[in-house]
Specification:
The protein has 269 residues and is α+β, with helices and mostly antiparallel strands. The protein folds into two domains: 103 residues, Tumour Suppressor Smad4 (Sandwich), CATH 2.60.200; 160 residues, Reverse transcriptase/Diguanylate cyclase domain (Alpha-Beta Plaits), CATH 3.30.70. The chain contains six helices and 17 strands. The protein has a five-stranded antiparallel beta sheet with strand order 1-10-9-6-7, with no helix packed on it. β4 and β5 form a beta hairpin. α3 packs across α4 and α4 packs antiparallel against α5. It starts with a strand and ends with a strand. The model has no long low-confidence stretch (mean pLDDT 93). This is diguanylate cyclase. One of its GO terms (cellular component) is plasma membrane. One of its GO terms (molecular function) is diguanylate cyclase activity.
Length: 269
């Protein structure tokens, strides 16, 4: 099934001997993107299992981020053809696994594994309402990877995807179980911190900034220098809506980038 790219959520049944994928309309699965070869890859259904075979494509076929020529697929493998990512689902209950994956796609970002924008929008609305009703502490951080376009232009989009995944996992590992980390859009991430004591959010923001700055982002033998700017706002009663809280954090993020990047700016300071 498609988990990233055009036709997201679409399922292709492997009920043929050979399934072809490519840019040409004569393929079983047409991926119409300039990075995809006319006849890019085939999946052969054999007694041993499903065998993927790259057809000498210009930009290659990747399984779990590794370039492959021929490989037998395993349940859960991610197949990347151009900018489209497929997930191979097998086993005794494919239909149930398919619906589980569809649900996950409504909540999680396919590239990074953290929550997606839709889940974030729902969560922040709920948490602002709880903060207003019960006075519970709530903090919002917006993170933006500095000069990310330059990273893509210099090292390529696959390297950029690698950086996004690594940054997301660095933030996720530092967060506590009841905190909420999401991909807000593009190279921007968000974190909601709940049930904390001061100066918890300030320490969290600075630690995450330092983690990214000091992390070795290595992709195919090349180390990519990465830093991140962060805007932080603590909820107060004047933030009546989730939108107002986001706007306050976004203004802090803007100040962090205007102030030279690779820094934390806190609302009210």
């Amino acid at each position: 099934m498609v988990i990233h790219g055009e036709n997201i959520g679409h399922k292709y049944d492997l009920d043929v001997e050979v399934l072809t994928i490519g840019r040409g309309r004569d393929n079983d699965v047409c991926v119409n993107h300039r990075s995809v070869s006319r006849h890019h890859v085939e999946i052969h259904i054999e007694e041993r299992g499903a065998k993927l075979k790259d057809l000498g494509s210009t930009n290659g076929t990747y399984v779990n981020e590794q370039p492959v020529r021929t490989v037998y697929l395993r349940d859960g493998d991610r197949i990347k053809v151009g900018r489209t990512v497929f997930k191979f689902i097998s086993g005794t209950n494919v239909e149930a696994a398919y619906h589980d994956q569809l649900y996950a796609m409504t909540r999680y970002d396919a590239l990074t594994g953290v929550y997606n924008r839709r889940a974030f929008d729902e969560k922040i609305t709920d948490e602002v309402a709880r903060a207003r009703r019960y006075g519970r502490p709530l903090a919002l951080l917006l993170f933006d990877i500095d000069h990310f376009k330059r990273c893509n232009d210099t090292y390529g989009h696959r390297a950029g995807d690698h950086v996004l995944r690594e940054v997301a996992q660095l933030v996720q590992r530092r967060a506590r179980k009841h905190d909420f980390v999401a991909r807000y859009g593009g190279e921007e991430f968000a974190a909601l911190l709940l049930e904390f004591e001061e100066p918890g959010p300030r320490l969290f923001a600075e630690e995450v900034r330092a983690l990214v700055q000091d992390h070795e982002f290595e992709f195919e033998g090349t180390v990519i220098p990465i830093t991140m700017s962060i805007g932080l706002v603590l909820w107060t009663p004047e933030h009546e809506t989730a939108g107002q809280l986001i706007e306050a954090a976004d203004q802090c993020l803007y100040r962090a980038k205007e102030g030279g990047r690779n820094r934390v700016v806190i609302a009210g300071t």
